[in-house]
């Protein structure tokens, strides 16, 4: 694929780890910059402490200089799981962060015996749809006017974990 800046940027080295309570505010702030319906601190904390949810953060750098560059939140209550959120800081997009977060989620859910992952995405979100197709998610349906601000249909996608 070609990126907006006209050339492929190098893959960024990140560490993926489970989010800690003290990172909730950074997750909220990143989401507020990206989503029209951002999660608040209560939502993020509920997932961090939730029985079935997992919040994984992508960190760049070492030691005290570590910075959050992305996150993925998914829910695994039974065989069928849901990808709830994935976000990457704008200045490091196109450098493999989302790919690494998705790889981690697929590995984790497979390892724990789950069977499928579902998600909804705005039909205009071509980058995210391309990301999901790369991971063999297929469109299974559409939800009319699912999103607000702006109003838009959702594409529902599903991947079976073999
Ligand atoms: C979608 C998003 C998570 C991708 O993150 P990223 O770290 O830039 O993605 P990667 O660099 O790992 O690229 C993974 C794949 O995404 C797709 N992609 C990424 N940037 C793209 C672009 N500019 N144009 C088209 N496809 C793109 C490609 O399929 C790419 O795979 P490839 O490099 O093998 O072609 C990021 O753009 C983002 O945070 N968007 C805003 C939040 C969002 O839309 N979340 C999904 C809501 S459902």
Could you characterize what this model shows?
With 162 residues, the protein is an alpha+beta fold. Helix content is 27%, strand content 35%. It has helices spanning 24-34, 41-49, 97-111, 126-134, and strands spanning 15-18, 53-60, 67-75, 80-88, 116-122, 138-147, 152-160. A seven-stranded mixed beta sheet has the order 1-2-3-4-5-7-6, sandwiched between helices. Helix 1 packs across helix 2 (41-49). The chain is globular. Residues 1-6 have low confidence and may be disordered. The chain binds coenzyme A (COA). Residues 1, 3-4, 34, 86-88, 93-99, 121, 125-128, 130-131, 134 line the site of coenzyme A.
Question: Summed up, what is this model?
Answer:
This protein has helices at 24-34, 41-49, 97-111, 126-134, and strands spanning 15-18, 53-60, 67-75, 80-88, 116-122, 138-147, 152-160.
Helix-strand makeup class:
alpha+beta
Strand order of the biggest β-sheet: 1-2-3-4-5-7-6
The low-pLDDT segments are 1-6
- Major pleated sheet: 7 strands, mixed
Question: Which range does the strand content fall in?
Answer: 25-35%
**Which ligands accompany this protein?**
coenzyme A
Q: How much helicity do the residues have?
A: 25-40%
């Amino acid at each position: 694929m070609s990126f907006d800046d006209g050339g492929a940027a190098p893959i960024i080295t990140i560490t993926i780890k489970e989010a800690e309570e003290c990172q909730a505010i950074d997750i909220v702030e990143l989401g507020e910059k990206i989503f029209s319906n951002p999660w608040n601190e209560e939502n993020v904390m509920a997932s961090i402490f939730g029985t079935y949810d997992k919040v994984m953060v992508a960190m760049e750098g070492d030691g005290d200089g570590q910075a959050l560059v992305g996150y993925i939140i998914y829910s695994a209550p039974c065989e069928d799981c849901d990808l709830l959120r994935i976000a990457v800081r704008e200045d490091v997009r196109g450098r493999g962060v989302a790919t690494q977060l998705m790889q981690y989620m697929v590995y984790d859910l497979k390892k724990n015996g789950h069977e499928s992952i579902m998600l909804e995405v705005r039909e205009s979100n071509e980058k995210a749809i391309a990301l999901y197709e790369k991971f063999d998610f297929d469109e299974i349906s559409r939800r009319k006017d699912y999103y607000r601000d702006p109003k838009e249909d959702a594409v529902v996608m599903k991947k079976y974990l073999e």
